[in-house]
Batch of 2 targets.
Target 1
Amino acid sequence: MPAGPFFTSGNVPIVSQLELNKIQAGKIHRFWLQLITDGMGTPVSVPVFVAKGTEKGPVLGLTAAVHGNEINGIPVIQRLFREIDPARLHGTLVGVPVMNVPAVLQRQRRFFEESDLNAIMPGREDGNAAQVYAYRLVDRLVRHFDYLIDLHTAGFGRENSYHVKADLEDPVTRRMAMLQNAPIIVHSPPSDGSLRGVADSLGIHSIAL
Ligand SMILES: [Zn+2]
């Protein structure tokens, strides 16, 4: 499969790799990042927004709906990309409003075969569908980030206050947590298998909201 855009859906290029260094600065870009095909051979792609600033700087990833029933982060990312001006941006903002595409389409929390995508990271290159999907999410997307903010929503039937989960012993993630203006910050070293955990293992400073 070629690395660059090889097909478009509407005006949105479908890519198999995110090549941030090759795209034009000062603009907002949209991609479909293809990860797997489903049981009928239909491509399964995650939507990716990129605001590439005109000034050099780090890459911040903003992800939502890794749990398919936690959808509040989706319009947050959409709104951010409507409002942000990449001409005034230092660094690059990558927004992924839906990480767990099959789950959102099926209106359920989990991926195919009841896999919790936020418990099987970083997946397996040669595993089952969920493991391969997780592996490619990390390999094609997450590893490009310097910082990660992962947006969740209270589970169904629960009431949660807005809070941040962060490793407060790490000065960088501590600062990220403090900047979120949340009434509650939970000290939580990242756990294995979570998106935050795999990001941390790759040296990507990450928090969950
Ligand atoms: Zn969640």
Note: The pocket of zinc ion is lined by residues 67, 70, 152 (CB under 6 Å).
Target 2
Amino acid sequence: MFRSLALCLAFLATPALAEAPAHEAFGAARSPAPGEARVYGSYAKGCHAGGVQLAADGPGWAAMRLSRDRRWAHPALADFVARLAARARAAGLGGLLIGDMGQPRGGPMKSGHRSHQTGLDVDIWLRPLSEKRPDATAREALSSWDVVQGRATLFEGLWRRSSARAIPLAAQDPAVARIFVHPVIKRALCAETAGTARPWMSKIRPWWGHDAHFHVRLACPAGSPECVDQAPPPAGEGCGAALDWWFTDEPYSGSSSPRKDLTMADLPPACRAVVDAN
Ligand SMILES: [Zn+2]
């Protein structure tokens, strides 16, 4: 009896029996889950059915890194990209280079983002789309523009010509819940629009790792009762003392905790059906 108990315990402790990371199944899905567009769960623990693939090219935008196959989204996000590109053009700004959205069925990814799981997140490069559209090779090889020097300074020349000009337009879109930007970019936008009414400014959130792109996050769309919104950003423009913290050492001094792979058990139960659906 003792022996079988010991065997049992050894069996339970075998790492191979731990549930597989959910990114394996979601990363293997090459097509969207059939059915109506529907979001399950939250931005960093979720998935979606009925996704669409953003066109590689559209009026005023070009999708980058096509080989990654991460330009899948809820239709509301593909619509948003087209809308923002049109507004940017109407405002005399350059075209947009579109980075990662998500996987065909959303879900956790093997590398890169913690969020981008529900088809509602998109990274937009700060490097603008030039007159000549990049070919497929250039879409793999080109890099975005890192407009931030050190932690607290903008490369002014790049900044002025960058797609950051489109951030206020994106923030004014009612579908948008939040936009993550480098703190220096938030500070510059605060300064440039000082003295104007800017109720949209609270949506622009300083965050680590956004020196070469801005990250737009839509609110839960209609028709997805299982979609979990993030709490709204704090009231106020976030241009004052809250921003000062980002220019201290504190945000950069902590050690980041190692990333734990999510398993299916961490996701809403509907995500198992989403990833298994034929
Ligand atoms: Zn992102």
Note: The first strand starts at residue 38 and ends at 42.
